[in-house]
Amino acid sequence: MASLEEIRSARLAKLKFLSEQGIDPYPSSARRDITCGESITRFSELAEGGQSLYMAGRIMSLRAQGKIIFFDIDDGTGRFQAFLKKGEPLKAKSFELFEKAFDIGDFVEVKGTFFLTKKEEKTVLVEEVRMLAKSLRPLPEKWHGLQDVEERFRKRYLDILSNSQVKELFIKRARFWDVTREFFKKEGFLEVETPTLEITTGGAEARPFKTHHHDFDMGVYLRISVGELWQKRLMASGFNKTFEIGRVYRNEGSSPEHLQEFTNLEFYWSYADYHDGMELVKRLYRTIASEVFGTTKFRTRGHSFDLGDEWRKIDYVEEIKSQTRLDITNATEGNMKEKLEELGVSYEGSNKERLIDSLWKYSRKNIAGPAFLINHPVIVGPLAKLNPDGKTVQIFQPILAGSEVGKGYSELNDPIDQEARFKIQQKLIESGDEEAMMADSEFVEMLEYGMPPTCGFGFGERLFAFLVDKPLRETHLFPLMRPKD
Fold this sequence. Notes:
Elements: H1 4-20, H2 36-41, H3 43-49, E1 53-65, E2 68-74, E3 79-85, H4 94-101, E4 107-116, E5 122-133, H5 149-154, H6 156-162, H7 164-186, E6 190-191, E7 197-198, E8 210-213, E9 218-222, H8 228-237, E10 241-249, E11 261-270, H9 274-293, E12 297-300, E13 303-306, E14 312-315, H10 316-324, H11 333-343, H12 352-364, E15 371-377, E16 392-400, E17 403-404, E18 407-410, H13 415-430, H14 441-449, E19 454-460, H15 461-467
Helix pairs in contact: 6-7, 7-9, 8-14, 10-12, 11-12, 13-14
């Protein structure tokens, strides 16, 4: 079996041969009267008409037998068989040129008429063939494609080319966001764009990426939410319903459910609360499931659930108590650490907020859903409105397959309360908590002018990853990779 360098050397020689024949191996344009996909669906009409048409695509297979050559071309819309035979109707010397210089992987243009072979295979009888782009490296082996995961991500173009399921995954991912956008526009939400560079990060608890703005000579952060504090300003301005779909950056660890760069959506809805939000989100998730996947029933992460079922409501404190036998409302930090160690749960950070979050993450893995998690302690919801009990906040989180796939609030619009909660978060930052929320005095100033009762909610591509039962990284076209040594 020839090595990569031997194959590349042979193809470089073919490239030189083409140039010596006065043939440009990389022309700037191509003729294409019809796609491969159209050739398949319109074949009967094309064969009857007998008209010569131009097609183009990449050679994906090639079978030569004496004076005849069969090869398949693929242009991204489908795969179609082409047939070369020495002599008429093929242009003089075209057969010999193809034999000497064309390989699997090359992009070609062909012109010909359509017919059925004796085996009733839809085929184009080639009259003219032209090189569009000479490939110098061989494609992955037909049946196995790229096997190494790192290589697949690094050379995603080959992964998609050799695996139709990967291609379909990304077509489905695009549809996922199309359906989402269509849903909100039909509901009367205005699509907006908010800054991705911020002086203070807001809207989530996460370690941000830092960079420098040279023109203003100041440090800035890449956003960790899809404009939460900006969209709330729009609620104060008189807009009633807004949404944004955009990239978010969090300088944290990777896992099957977490990456540092990902796509999220956030919506904000004036004169609505978290009860309204739950009903809207339930309809949204069911719409996505039906229109993108054709079903509301899924099996993922070892759980089965049906989005068409009733969504039960789970109390944050009571669920942790039920699963761990610890009441977090009166437990000390020491009690929580002991319980986490007893459960064999590793945790980061030792403040109360992080410990409570670790206990919840242990508990959630046993919930298949669909469900909404509600009644979070105040400490884990610094931007949410208080419940009448004064101890919990009006947060709702959809739970599927043991994980949260979204988060929404009745948004806090009391400037005095908001400023006090920012101060608590600032103390956490000063104690070393890199994920605590930064204080934003200009946001508090906006609240002093007045913001109506508002429901806000965000979810991201983690939902898509759950519904296709793939690690989040698999659903990214080009995940970040370390450079090769």
